[in-house]
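Is it possible to get an amino acid sequence alongside its tokenized fold?
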Amino acid sequence: LTASLGGPFIVVTHGWLVAPRELYLQPEYLPGGDLGALLGRSGPLGPAAARFYVGSAALALEAMHSQHVAHRDVKPENICVCADGYAKVVDLGFATRLPDDGRAHSLLGTPEYLAPEIFLAEGHGVEADVWALGATLHTLLLDAHPFGGPTPQHVYSEALKGEVFFPQNLLSPPTKQLISAMLSREPAARPTAGALWTLAFFSAGAVLGAQQPLEAEALRQRTAQPPFVPRLRSPFDVRHFERGDADDDSDESGDDGEAPTLALAGGAEADARELRFQAPERACSIEELERAAHIS
């Protein structure tokens, strides 16, 4: 499945090796690191940067969904930055080609990005990826999950209530409109990955720092300006995968010594960082999710 998927926004698998008990994949190396690491170093991303990365991921999901494939683990850690600053969706370990009825029934994923139809074992399709991308957009903008809690049970309970966490005056109306639509409780009410481009979030002036619209074709043709282009010391540089403040992050500063501006304007970054939820962000096994959701 991994090798059969293609496109400029999905990680490329160059080959694989089959051992008696293991399968080793050789994906391309994306030296800019994942967005989870970028969040850890820079704090909340600015709306223009978040729009760029979510738009790239939406194009990846659109390509996957057109082949009836669901990713099922979309989150900042599974969106990586290429050497040219563009982003690709990675880690297709949970991806599956959906059956004829368009529904899978495996219980797996990362709790903070899990759609209700998954943890309720109702059967899920590609709409679950849209939910996860909406939760990802919220996390990129605020460094906080839309539905928080110390355990998966708390996260699921908040998600079922449907009250998305929006700090006052930090997000524009088009941004909140998009996130709310993507986090609709009913899968059929969510926009498809391809339909996201019709919403105001991608229009000119809809978000702070983006006076021009972001169009899907500009990403496909790679004419849009990336918000972050990694500086690499070598083709094997792994600094950008580090979490937290790295000692050598000063290499990414401009000539005036100031770090790249990726956070929300004004004091929003400090406010958002205080709102971060401490909840597990690793992908859970089926057994762990069953215990958390009390599903036997």
In short: Residues 107 and 119 are 6 Å apart (CA to CA). The chain is about 30% helix and 5% strand. Strands lie at 13-18, 23-27, 69-70, 79-81, 87-89, 96-97.
